[in-house]
């Protein structure tokens, strides 16, 4: 007889990944990675940490928690760390959700969100985005009930790249009961012109202790390969709970050392942000010149609507464009895999990669 797995394994969707072919020479515009590698001092810090790889990582994570506490003015005991922000998100689902509980989020949004309800047996309530591919916070608020344990707000939103101003988030929080944990997923907040100062949302923690800000070193810090995420919480209860449901030593010594050093190089982060926003603007203009709709981007990627076709042809048309781009050396993410059929999610890359994408897309659009 074959091994019998738990029912929840059959419920959990597979995370959509890009791959399955030779990536050498490809323009990698599918995974929202930074085209900029870590600063030299950051890479050196990670390498130095490897000399002690025979020992377990510091289980207190004190240097990194301390660095984040100094930067944001949040006590270290209210700072959760993880192997990427996904690690914290999944731990939050395990700590907060169970059969009979409810989880509310917009859709399409981050692909990991459906995992939380599937793994826990909770009920997921997905609220459609508005006509501009933004969160409909008023509608989300109406879905919150006494059974709701967790609300997820991805701002800027992945995969649609859109953001809502902080004033709208504040009005939303005022309507959420204090028993509900609200995770404001801000992996791309440093790149948002709509949100502005990435410190501004931190002030909300003082007013709403049920709020958690989820952030990442994968994007503007260029550390996607080392997997470092963090959460700033209104109380220390959140950090305690997510730590209880995870394995010990969840963040490697090299990752910790790199993240601590990265915090010391905010000038480099600012340079990357400015360069990415400028490249994003050029990329948006180029796509619109092809006659395609692009969502107002506040992230390091675009959400592009493909030419309209009959409903029964959307999947084939999207797959043909994605395959055509791949054949021309450009890797992007298909919208259908992210909950938005008929779209492409395209990471902002180097100037050369962006130009390569636009040239390839122009050929495919003309063919259509």
In short:
The protein is of the alpha/beta class and 368 residues long.
Offer a few descriptive terms.
Aspartate Aminotransferase, domain 2; Aspartate Aminotransferase, domain 1; seven-stranded mixed beta sheet; alpha/beta; 12 strands; 368 residues; 2 domains; 15% strand; three-stranded antiparallel beta sheet
CATH architectural label of the largest domain: 3-Layer(aba) Sandwich
- Order of helix and strand elements from N to C terminus: HEHHEHEHEHEHEEEHHHEHEEEH
Number of H- or I-type helical stretches:
12
- Radius of gyration in whole Å, from Cα? 21 Å
The mean pLDDT is 94
User: What structural class do helix, strand and pairing data support?
Assistant: alpha/beta
What portion of residues belong to β-strands? Answer: 5-15%
Give the total of beta strands. Answer: 12
Q: Roughly how many Å apart are the termini?
A: 51 Å
Q: Helix coverage percent of residues? A: 25-40%
Please tell me the total number of domains. Answer: 2
What strand line-up does the widest sheet have?
2-8-7-6-5-3-4
Give the CATH superfamily of the largest domain.
Type I PLP-dependent aspartate aminotransferase-like (Major domain)
């Amino acid at each position: 007889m074959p091994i019998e797995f738990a029912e929840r394994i059959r419920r959990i969707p597979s995370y959509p990944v890009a791959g399955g072919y030779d990536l050498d020479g490809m323009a990698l515009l599918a995974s929202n990675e930074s085209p900029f590698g870590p600063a030299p001092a950051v890479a050196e810090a990670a390498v130095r940490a490897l000399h002690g790889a025979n020992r377990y990582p510091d289980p207190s994570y004190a240097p990194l928690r301390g660095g984040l506490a100094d930067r944001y003015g949040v006590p270290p005991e209210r700072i959760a760390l993880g192997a990427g922000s996904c690690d914290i998100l999944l731990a939050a689902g395990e700590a907060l959700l169970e059969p009979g509980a409810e989880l509310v989020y917009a859709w399409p949004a981050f692909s990991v969100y459906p995992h939380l309800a599937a793994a826990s047996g909770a009920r997921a309530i997905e609220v459609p985005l508005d006509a501009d591919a933004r969160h409909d916070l008023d509608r989300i608020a109406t879905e919150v009930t006494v059974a709701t344990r967790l609300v997820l707000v991805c701002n800027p939103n992945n995969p649609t790249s859109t953001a809502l101003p902080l004033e709208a988030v504040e009005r939303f929080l005022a309507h959420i009961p204090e028993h509900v944990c609200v995770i404001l997923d801000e992996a791309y907040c440093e790149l948002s012109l709509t949100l502005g100062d990435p410190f501004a949302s931190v002030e909300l923690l003082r007013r709403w202790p049920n709020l958690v800000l989820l952030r990442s070193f994968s994007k503007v810090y260029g550390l996607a390969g080392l997997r470092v995420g963090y959460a700033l919480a209104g109380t220390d209860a959140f950090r305690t709970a997510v730590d209880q449901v995870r394995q010990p030593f969840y963040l490697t010594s090299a990752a910790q050392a790199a993240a601590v050093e990265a915090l010391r190089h905010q000038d480099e982060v600012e340079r990357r942000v400015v360069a990415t926003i400028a490249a994003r603007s050029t990329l948006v203009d180029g796509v619109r010149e092809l006659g395609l709709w692009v969502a107002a981007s506040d992230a390091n990627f675009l959400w592009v609507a493909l030419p309209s076709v009959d409903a029964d042809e959307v999947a084939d048309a999207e797959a043909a464009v994605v395959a055509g781009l791949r054949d021309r050396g450009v890797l992007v993410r298909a919208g259908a895999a992210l909950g938005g059929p008929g779209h492409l999610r395209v990471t902002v890359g180097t100037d050369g990669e962006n130009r390569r994408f636009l040239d390839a897309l122009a050929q495919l659009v003309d063919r259509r």
